[in-house]
Fold:
Amino acid sequence: MTDVTLIGAPVDCGKARRGCLMGPDAFRVAGLAEALRDLGHRVTDSGNVVPGAPSDHPDAPAHLIALGETVAWTRALHDAARQAMVSSMPVFMGGDHALAAGTVTGVAAHAADIGRPQFVLWLDAHTDFHTPLSTTSGNLHGTPLAYACGRAGFDMFPPVPAPVSEENVALLGIRSVDPAEHAALVDSPVSLHDMREIDETGFAAPLRAFLQRVEAANGMLHVSLDVDFLDPSIAPAVGTTVPGGATFREAHLVMEMLHESRRVTSLDLVELNPFLDERGKTAALMVDLVGSLMGRRVFDRPTRAHV
Structure:
């Protein structure tokens, strides 16, 4: 039994296309709290985080979208994450992936507070390893992992108190990398497993190797699950669809392996845009995946009737 705190993070400023604002409520309507309680966990929904006023950055690159709002969200979510980690496993219901700038730095600060290493598993079609100086789109949802790792170029953001060591980061399911991100990652110890590699080896081998490293270090593991990790045929409710993502069974295998590791201490659910969904299909799948992460096994699933 785990004490779980659901934290709404209706961040919708990390990119130009809107809609992720509705994500937290979509997870609630899809029954995330009920699914976790049915598995025997104690669940508290703390409501939605409310950021402070947007900060002013007159000298920042003009093409950056909603920089002041993103910085405000980063501060608020950092504090919420650091506090929630003291007594529970926080599940951050997003919201676009810019929210991870706050959630990952917050959980990593807590890990540093108690003297344990922080690991991060990034389940995403994209690496999100841009900086505000390298992004050409200005979409800051493409920068949170670089920020959490303490990369240069984030002078307008709050200082990162406990940067995540890049050797403690694994990216799984990658299939869209911009040139600047590629250049940064070539010289980085980040473990990157793209879908070409997954096609050859499957998800189990690289994930098992990473989880063994987490266990050997007695690490804390933050999982950041982006809807576009999944193939758009099963998860259409995302504004950044990239064909060739994880299938239904592949995604559940990843979640089941994470549960068996007993190492996951915090979780992001990001980029759900209910405006693009098909009768709640994607929200329901994401809730089902969280169920697998939190202990539901294949043989526990009831057969669904279709009429």
The chain has one domain: 3-298. The two ends are 36 Å apart (CA to CA). The domain at 3-298 is CATH 3.40.800.10 (Arginase; Chain A).
